[in-house]
């Protein structure tokens, strides 16, 4: 089976082009906003719907800035030195989840201090919503024919377009590669998007120790990303980071797994509880 031919541009109006990749991010942020509104109305919370709108705004800025800077620093630093303006062409793809996560953490930390709300109360509220956004982002990667998988003879494999793998396989001639690859973007959309979202959403439906919902999300995302990286080609220019098997995505996921598990341990959850004024 051949990789489906998808024009990355949905439509153009003059010099302005609407792309699937950009639409995926818009849908992701809108979905997170609506799901957050639903949670506030159903479960109640310590801030208003207007404040939730502020949280989403801060989180959006943190995601975009952190995600782009993370991609530049972790994956494409040399390309940015050659073409500095490339860093602003987000519509061409190139966002790092790990960088975006750091950006969101910084944004939420600033917001929590401004409004004097415990950081982990906000993080626990936001954590169940993040995965669905990740899923939409991976669908954007799919539309852009990004994240080529490793070669496979499995029935799940597809023939990638030559233009999508020319850096990995310069000998590719014609429209499609002669062998098949895993569609790693869809694997990650399903695991770190759908599955992690469902588990964390269900877990957060009941009161949990402070920090544990955020911890569960970090641990599950890290594990899902670590596992699915085995089906994804290492990034061009980086290759394997450790030996002949660990990728940059796996290396960056290890701290998430460790930190997530720590946040769920009783000793840590007790330590981060708000201090009583009595």
Distance between the termini: 67 Å
Largest sheet: 2 strands, antiparallel
Q: How do the helices and strands follow one another from N- to C-terminus?
A: EEHHHHHEEHHHH
Number of strands: 4
Residues in helix, %: 55-70%
Strand fraction: under 5%
What does the overall shape look like? globular
| Average pLDDT over all residues | 89
Write down the Rg: 20 Å
Order of strands across the biggest sheet? 1-2
Low-confidence stretches: none
Class of secondary structure makeup: mainly alpha
Q: Count helical runs.
A: 9
Report on the structure:
This protein has 278 residues and is mainly α. The protein is 57% helix and 5% strand. It contains 9 helices and 4 strands; from the N terminus they run E-E-H-H-H-H-H-E-E-H-H-H-H. The chain has helices spanning 20-43, 49-74, 77-82, 97-115, 119-143, 184-203, 212-228, 248-263, 266-271, and strands spanning 9-13, 16-19, 151-152, 180-181. Strands 1-2 form a two-stranded antiparallel sheet. A two-stranded antiparallel sheet has the order 3-4. Strand 1 (9-13) and strand 2 (16-19) form a beta hairpin. The chain is globular. The model has no long low-confidence stretch (mean pLDDT 89).
């Amino acid at each position: 089976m051949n990789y489906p031919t998808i024009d990355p541009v949905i439509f153009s109006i003059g010099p302005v082009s609407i792309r699937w990749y950009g639409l995926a991010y818009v849908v992701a942020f809108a979905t997170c906003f609506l799901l957050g509104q639903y949670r506030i109305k159903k479960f109640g919370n310590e801030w208003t719907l207007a404040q939730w709108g502020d949280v989403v705004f801060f989180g959006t800025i943190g995601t975009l800035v952190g995600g782009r800077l993370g991609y530049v620093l972790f994956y494409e630093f040399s390309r940015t030195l050659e073409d500095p303006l490339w860093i602003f062409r987000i519509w061409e793809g190139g966002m790092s989840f790990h960088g975006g996560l750091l950006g969101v953490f910084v944004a939420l930390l600033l917001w929590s201090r401004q409004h004097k709300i415990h950081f982990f109360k906000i993080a626990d509220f936001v954590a169940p919503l993040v995965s669905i956004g990740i899923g939409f982002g991976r669908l954007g990667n799919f539309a852009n024919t990004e994240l080529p998988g490793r070669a496979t003879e499995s029935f799940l494999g597809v023939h990638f377009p030559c233009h999508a793998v020319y850096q990995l396989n310069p000998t590719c001639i014609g429209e499609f590669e002669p062998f098949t690859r895993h569609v790693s973007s869809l694997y990650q959309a399903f695991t770190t998007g759908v599955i992690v979202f469902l588990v964390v959403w269900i877990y957060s439906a009941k009161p949990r120790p402070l920090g544990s919902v955020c911890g569960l999300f970090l641990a599950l995302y890290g594990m899902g990303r670590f596992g699915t990286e085995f089906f994804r080609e290492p990034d061009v220019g980086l290759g394997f980071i450790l030996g002949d098997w660990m990728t940059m995505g796996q290396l960056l996921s290890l701290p998430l797994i460790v930190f997530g598990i720590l946040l769920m341990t009783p000793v840590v959850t007790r330590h981060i509880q708000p201090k009583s004024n009595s």
